């Protein structure tokens, strides 16, 4: 005797199967009818529909002729990813439901996982380590800046989005993740145990008796607290000017960047963001100036995102001299949208940041007040001298002596 519950289940399965078969038959005969001219569509409608048919044709060609079997889900996700990638703005991306579940919303904007900072390597399209923080899982595993992350738990990272890689590396304390690395010519598999670490992202030093140095790894959730402590240290050291080093800083959290900028600015607009057909969102300083002495900010081509917003805001308001290279020009507001039918996620650029002057940074970047050429930077490295740092100190010395 079949139970009522089991009968309902069987009927549901039969119904779903019937819908699938009907859809396939409808697709086949619709396509044939269009091709034979039995169904007439306007030009735009016809071209749009044929693109979907072409996608199905390509899938069939791959399935029947490719050198090895390809998982259907892989082809479908590749197609979906291609739709978003075609926007070609450097931000927008497609994430599977699994990848998005790994995201830590509290780490949004952060480029750090397991104590290492990542970016995509331009030469290989793998994940490249740009910085390793002390007393972290990455540090304990002897990973160093320049190493490539080739795979994460068996998933190849070539062409993987940075945020996808970071999401897969992060996780619950005590759980393990296996990564394959390449250091020089040597490849190895490493098993890392995840653990929560309060990582320092703001670093201080004194260049000489009058000039302080602050390096910001990224504008993360702890940046403002660490930066305020750094400024207090500068005051205790009797510094008369500071150098803020943003070379290689990939960005981070806009709220943190604006809070740090507030330490230098009198009341007024720091920046705004504007999207399509939306009202502007403004970030303003509150006239709570913590540092009113001279500032030089060093930037390079890898300075990006909200790090650019911070530096440009101080430049725009005449509070800092910018020294170095033209910055990346990648500062935009992104938003996540869930696909209702699947749970997958799409990240899209929904707004761009603007300075009080009306200038925008996306695709432009910051033009330094004083440029340092790539040749000069390379020469300085060869001589083990930091040309940019020496020049920044000279600028501050001149400003201090004049003021």
From TrEMBL:
Residues 100-196 form the PDZ domain. PROSITE patterns: PDZ (PS50106). GO terms for molecular function: endopeptidase activity; serine-type peptidase activity. One of its GO terms (cellular component) is outer membrane-bounded periplasmic space. The chain crosses the membrane at residues 7-29. SMART domains: PDZ, TSPc. GO terms for biological process: proteolysis; signal transduction. InterPro entries: ClpP/crotonase-like_dom_sf, CtpA/B_N, PDZ, PDZ_sf, Peptidase_S41A, Tail-specific_protease. Keywords: Hydrolase, Membrane, Protease, Serine protease, Transmembrane, Transmembrane helix. Belongs to the peptidase S41A family. This is S41 family peptidase. It comes from Guopingia tenuis.
């Amino acid at each position: 005797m079949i139970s009522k519950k089991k009968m309902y289940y069987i009927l549901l399965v039969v119904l779903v199967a019937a819908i699938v078969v009907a859809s396939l038959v409808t697709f086949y005969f619709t396509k044939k009818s269009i091709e034979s001219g039995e169904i007439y569509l306007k030009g735009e409608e016809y071209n749009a529909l044929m693109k979907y048919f072409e996608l199905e044709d390509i899938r069939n060609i791959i399935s029947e002729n490719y050198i090895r079997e390809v998982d259907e889900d892989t082809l479908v996700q590749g197609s979906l990813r291609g739709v978003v990638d075609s926007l070609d703005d450097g931000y927008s991306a497609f994430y599977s439901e699994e990848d998005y579940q790994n995201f830590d919303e509290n780490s949004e904007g952060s480029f750090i996982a397991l104590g290492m900072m990542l970016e995509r390597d331009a030469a290989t399209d793998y994940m490249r380590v740009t910085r390793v923080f002390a007393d972290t899982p990455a540090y304990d595993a002897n990973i160093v800046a320049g190493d490539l992350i080739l795979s994460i738990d068996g998933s190849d990272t070539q062409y993987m989005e940075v945020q996808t890689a970071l999401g897969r590396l992060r996780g619950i304390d005590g759980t393990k993740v296996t990564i394959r690395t390449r250091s020089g010519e040597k490849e190895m598999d490493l098993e890392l145990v995840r653990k929560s670490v309060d990582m320092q992202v703001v670093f201080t030093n004194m260049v000489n008796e009058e000039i302080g140095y602050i390096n910001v790894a990224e504008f993360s959730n702890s940046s403002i607290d660490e930066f305020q402590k750094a400024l207090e240290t500068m005051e205790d050291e009797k510094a008369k000017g500071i150098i803020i080093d943003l070379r290689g800083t990939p960005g981070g959290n806009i709220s943190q960047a604006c809070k740090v900028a507030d330490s230098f600015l009198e009341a007024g607009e720091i920046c705004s963001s504007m999207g399509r057909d939306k009202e502007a969102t403004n970030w303003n300083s509150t006239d709570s100036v913590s540092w009113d002495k001279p500032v030089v900010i060093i930037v390079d081509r890898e300075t990006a995102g909200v790090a650019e917003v911070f530096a440009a805001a101080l430049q725009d308001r005449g509070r800092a001299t910018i020294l170095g290279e033209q910055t990346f020009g990648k500062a935009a507001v992104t938003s996540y949208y869930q696909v209702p039918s699947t749970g997958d996620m799409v990240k899209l650029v929904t707004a761009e940041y603007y300075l009080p002057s009306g200038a925008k940074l996306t695709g432009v970047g910051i033009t330094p007040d004083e440029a340092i050429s790539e040749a000069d930077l390379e020469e300085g490295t060869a001589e083990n001298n930091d040309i940019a740092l020496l020049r920044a100190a000279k600028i501050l010395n001149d400003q201090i002596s004049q003021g």
